[in-house]
Structure formats: structure tokens, C-alpha cells
Design goal:
Number of helices: 8
Distance between the termini: 34 Å
Shape: globular
Helix content: 25-40%
Length: 233
Amino acid sequence: MGLVIHLERATDRRAQANALVSQLPFAALLPAVDGAAMGADARARAVQPGLLKPAYPFELRPGEIGCFLSHRAAWARLVESEAEAALIIEDDMALEAGFADALALAQRNVAQMGYIQFQTRPVTAPAIDQQGQSVLMQPGLTPLRTSGQLVARWAAERLLALTEPFDRPVDTFLQMHWHTGLRLGVISPSGLSDRTEVIGGSTIGAKKSLVERLTREWHRARYRAAVRRLSRG
């Protein structure tokens, strides 16, 4: 099965989301959870700050909460279906040459790995498998982003059980193999390209002052150093 996560108020992305559905076999739109439209009580029920170590140093923004809940909805849809895996793609992606090879490569390995990213940024790590130009790797430090992924049913069940509640963005959570028991596979090049800026920009980010940006960078650097240490364990 295929699921394209689409935030309905993001009308600039509607055409791209529909194009993905038409290009992917057995795909459907999955309405994204709009974190900005949720009440404060509903957001508070979803999130428990300081739940896991290393502690995530920032308060989750409404868009990050909605993004995580959207991926949980995709995992739940997979678990409720008869499919053994689901291709989950966000609506700001475009398919490029080589995607068919990347998808076949992921399908060949997802039952064992559980979760395989389709990265839009270059990744370098020892090759596990290859088809065409697409290379499957398993980096010690899982790259960020949830642009596209093939997820096995058993992995979706595990992730659902571990993320009620959650305390950090979904891609940051997925780095934590010491907690999830999942070392994600990564395919690069993946045949996916990022069209975020072309179709209206991010639906998650917010503008910050220079002081806020510098403060966040300091906290982010400390957090990422802790994640790197644990990733090597």
C-alpha cells in the first residue's frame, strides 16, 4: 500500500500530492494531522516532555506534533490493513529517475530491516545491497527526515506502541535505535527530490530571531553529540 501524507490547508501542495497518488501503485491521500488546529489540551496529551534520554532540548512546535501524529496515523493505517508494508511519502516530494529501482531495493529488504528511508540528501555508508544506482546502507547515525519510507507492518506495530506519548520530532525519535530496536536502512540516491521551497515552503517551521537561532544551535549541538555517542553503542 502507498500513503501520501497531505495537510489539507496546504493548498499549494495539493497538485503535488495528487500527482504522487497518480504515480504510485495502490496509493491514497492520508489527511495530515493539523497541529496548529489542535487544542492545547490535545497537544499536551500527545506529548510528554523529558520522556526519553537524551532529553530533547526544545519544546515541540504544533507543526512537529502534527507531523508525528500524521506518521502515527500512517503506521496505524498499515497495521489495520492486510498489507505487509506501506510506502509513506510526504506531499512535498517528487518522483525522479531511479525511484523504481529504489522501491524494488527497499521491497527486497524491508521485511528484515523493518524501516527503510528514501533519502533526498546524499548519504555515505557501507553498501548492503544495490539496484541500479540506488544503494541500501545502514549508517550508524540515522539521517534525519521522513520524506519517504517503506515500513513493515511489524515495525509499525512496534513504533505505535513506543510513541504514545512522545517527546521529540518523529525523525529525531527514529534515530533512537537503542530505544526502538530498529536500525533504519537508508537508500541513496532514492529517486525522490524535495520540492518544499517550490510549492510554498515548510508547514512546520517558524521564523526566529538571531538570538533564538544561536541559542537553538548551541542546544542542538549538545543534543546531537549525545545522540552520536549513543548511536555508536
